Amino acid sequence: MFNKEGADIAIKQKIYSPQMVRLITLRAIVIPETLQEFLAWLNIQGGKKPDEHQTVSLEFQKDIRPLFPQEQLTKGINYLLINLLNKQISVDSLYWLLTTEGSAWVYAQKKFITDVKYDLQLIGDYVTRRLDHKFFKCRKQVWTTLISNWRSIKEQNHKSEEYQPFAELFEKFQEYDLAAYFYQVSQSNVSNDLFYNIAYEKYLRLNPNGDKLSKVLFYEVAYQEYRNSNIVVYGLLIKRKPTFVEFIINFVIQGLISPSINFTSNLIKNTIEFLVDLIKWIFKAIIWLVCISMGLAAFGFGIQNFGIFFIIFIFYLIAASSKK
After folding, report:
1. Element (H, E) at 59
2. By the 8 A CB rule, do 23 and 56 touch?
């Protein structure tokens, strides 16, 4: 039906009449698989003000948005997640779609984020079991690599770098837990600033009725308690990236001090073992010398006594023969 109205021709020939802009916009909502093509055709670029054609589309989206449920709009976003993994669209394009005033997909942003959180929690709880696609809110293809490498990712033996765009997207949304999760998945650590933000949110959750320190005071005072604390997000331990000073200290300790300590400890250990063996040898030598000396003394004593007995025997013979 859309092609009969000229949608395919408008896309191929880049026809941007107001009628065609509205037609392609409606097509992207009704057929979620075409949302990527819609963004490319409309030349969506993050950080730029909407041009004339984009403005026409946004005004039309605002008018027709109430006609479509959030589920319908979320379907299109789920298709874009796969495109984002495959680097067929940019983070800025998807962010533009989900944040620009007037965009119909803005109203599906919260549900989209909630669905991602639900799926990650599901993976963290049941990844060891076989999960059917019907259990996921997002399309299971989005999480295939994550699920298959989950154990290695948890043990920090594997990095799934294709998920880094997810980290960048959720960092833009200031969804720090999600951003940290995907940075950990893709880079095996998170930046200090992001880790501090998560620690601050953790502090607020643990102190809902207490004094809520500002971030500045938190960094100076309360933050120290959370600086090296373990933060787990959806079953994944978040590792803070060491600062430059910490990197140098670790390098010195591991590269210079540790080998020196190991060398010294091995030297001391070997020296002690040598001295112990030497003392054992000397002790054995002394025992043998004592035994030999005692043996020689006994032998000498025996010989000496035999000589006296022999002399007495001779004198006895002489005396006996003289009497005769």
Report:
1. helix 52-64
2. no
Residues pairing with 236 in the sheet = 233
Per-residue model confidence as pLDDT tens for the chain (324 residues):
999 999 999 999 999 999 999 999 999 999 999 999 999 999 987 777 889 999 999 999 999 999 999 889 999 999 999 999 998 999 999 999 999 999 999 989 999 999 999 999 988 887 655 555 568 888 888 999 998 899 899 888 899 999 999 999 999 999 999 999 999 999 999 988 888 888 878 777 777 665 666 666 666 555 556 666 678 899 899 888 776 555 566 556 666 655 666 667 777 877 887 787 778 878 887 887 888 877 777 666 666 666 666 666 666 667 666 655
Residue 310 burial (CB count, 10 A): 10
How large is the angle between the packed helices 164-172 and 70-85, nearest 10 degrees? 130
Coil, strand or helix at 237: strand
Burial of residue 219, with CB atoms counted within 10 A of its CB: 0-12 exposed, 13-18 middle, 19 or more buried: middle
pTM score, whole prediction: 0.70
3-state DSSP call for residue 94?
Answer: helix
3-state helix, strand, coil in the chain (%, to 5): 75, 0, 25
What is the number of residues in the chain? 324
Within 13 Å of residue 314, how many CA atoms lie on the same side as its CB?
6
Instruction: Quote the CA–CA distance of 289 and 303 in Å, as a whole number.
Output: 20
Cβ atoms of 25 and 68 within 8 Å: the answer is no
C-alpha to C-alpha distance for 84 and 99, rounded to whole angstroms:
17
